[in-house]
Amino acid sequence: VKAVAASARRVVHVAVDESGYDAHIGAGVLAELGTRIMALAPLGPVVIVTNPTVRALYGAAVESSLAGCGIGARIVEIPDGEQYKTLETLELIFDAALSSGADRSSVIVALGGGVVGDLAGFAAASLFRGVRLYMVPTTLLAQVDSSVGGKTGVNRPHGKNLVGAFHQPRGVLADTSTLATLSDREYRAGLAEVVKYGVILDKDLFDLLERESERVLARDEALLVEIVERCIAIKARVVERDEREAGLRRLLNFGHTVGHAIEKVTGYTRFLHGEAVAMGMVAAAKLSEQLGACESGVASRIERLLQALELPATISGDLGRQSLVDAVAFDKKVSGDKVIFVVVERIGHCVQREIDRGLIATAL
Amino acid sequence: VKAVAASARRVVHVAVDESGYDAHIGAGVLAELGTRIMALAPLGPVVIVTNPTVRALYGAAVESSLAGCGIGARIVEIPDGEQYKTLETLELIFDAALSSGADRSSVIVALGGGVVGDLAGFAAASLFRGVRLYMVPTTLLAQVDSSVGGKTGVNRPHGKNLVGAFHQPRGVLADTSTLATLSDREYRAGLAEVVKYGVILDKDLFDLLERESERVLARDEALLVEIVERCIAIKARVVERDEREAGLRRLLNFGHTVGHAIEKVTGYTRFLHGEAVAMGMVAAAKLSEQLGACESGVASRIERLLQALELPATISGDLGRQSLVDAVAFDKKVSGDKVIFVVVERIGHCVQREIDRGLIATAL
Hints:
The structure is a homodimer of 364-residue chains.
Chain A: E1 9-14, E2 21-26, H1 33-38, E3 46-50, H2 52-67, E4 73-77, H3 87-99, E5 107-112, H4 114-126, E6 132-137, H5 140-146, E7 151-156, E8 159-166, E9 172-175, H6 184-201, H7 203-211, H8 213-217, H9 221-241, H10 256-265, H11 273-290, H12 298-308, H13 321-329, E10 334-335, E11 338-346, E12 349-356, H14 357-363
Parallel strand pairs in A: 2-9, 3-4, 3-5, 5-6
Antiparallel strand pairs in A: 1-2, 7-8, 10-11, 11-12
Helix pairs in contact in A: 3-4, 5-6, 5-9, 6-7, 6-11, 10-11, 10-13, 11-12, 11-14, 13-14
């Protein structure tokens, strides 16, 4: 196991369930996977869910880390892309796991981005009514958001993540050196969720992103470790207080109600999730201004930061306002004609409001 | 709402989660469904999952009970039979629920037997990562077993119930008058699970079944209320202490390791679940005798009771011993080469033992 310099390594504890779990953040922590899994003492085989791109980059390192600890692994490749976040892909994982002799003691490892994590997580939640899950997120989005918190799921024709489970992982390895291989577009999409944490709960983070936007875009390694740690720590504190999204956790949906609608209307192919969230955040901030929740200028400050990070901030006119409004109606945060919407009061402070769905039409 | 005589009505509280839930047992309690659902205050539509046979018998009564309380319902018909306990059928439920405007406040009602309950339950566990579930079991098997305890799931080609979730219902209405419409075969299959409760935890129940086997077969209504109440009460006490099947709950699998193997080898079509469990219980009792766990004669006493209840007790020679042994290996209670097997020490008292899979070959 390659040692990771103590200075470049952070651990965030997530206190959910009885024992909670640790997220390890740093350049090179991927090499520790064997040790981490060994600590879980699986009897059955370890099932690694990944996609062809990620496997080509890290498959060998992961297998050798596990083999070095005497752990046999079965790699399950699933196709890459949001459009494959389906029950059909889930069946691939179930059947590969069952065919390789997985049992209740087995561990499923999610090696990849958000799609891999959501699918592997739902598979782990459901196989034998629940086996253990270990998250190895390799995209910025997955490191700062989806790998922590236990949300798993698949899409339906009616919308995103409409079917799934809450299933907390037993640990997270966020290796920031994997971020170097992301395309610019995918990396920036992850930054949208980082901006979100700043807006909802951490003004200092927002200020840091404004101040250091160039170093952020250049993927400065030390800065990345700090940013990922900060985001995971925020998410951990939110999830600890509200695991099942009964209240506080909804703040994490800032920008997502409209973001999901944008993704849906464009068939989940035109925009990356983070890009849709970027546009959704500006729409949500504009609506907050219209509602008088915050002073004017907040939306344009968020818009400027997103633009500095080379993210889309304006909803393209060709999307069709009415189809966006209709798509919002199918969002799972909607109850009846009311939408629980996250409004910004000031940078670093958001609140939830139950608003009329019609008001969203105005903001779009 | 038609009143149910207080004397003919029992309530068993199941103390799981924060608030727990009640199982209402009696002839005619189905008419109370509207009142029960109203108490859950759903905003979205109620989704009733059922099959064509059960719908023809009780669909109108259920809809009128709900309508009488001002509750709109969408009935989703799924095909009848264990072979339809699949992810594909689950999709039918998801899409019917989503198309009818279900939201997080919606309630899914399972109206039918074990297949309906397992599918509706898994759908409720997964839709929006969890909506509320209400159980209206209309078979003896479902009333005494699957409607209480929160196990849900679907089959895979590798075996039964390999994919699912733990999801407790918000209530159970076990209307014993619905048992009058069951075929003799289905009714008797349910009795196998009743015998199981007697063997594992309730000698008095076992004695009662021996003494009153003719009244049991004649479906004496007062006796049925007593039997169903007694079984639900046993199951409730077990599930309360071990919701996730970490220990005690495994006792409920008495007869099921071999029973599942029999079902699998025969393609889930030749035997009803209860019939397979009946044969599995005798095999388990014989193995218990061979292990010296109980004195000889216990297996034949169980066999005699099952025969008096007109259930199969002997595994037909044409099933193939080796294929049964192989099927046991895929049972989800298996870890490595060991099987956690429930052995009987005496009628009314069973224990778990980790035994070598090879020993099962001997017993078959």
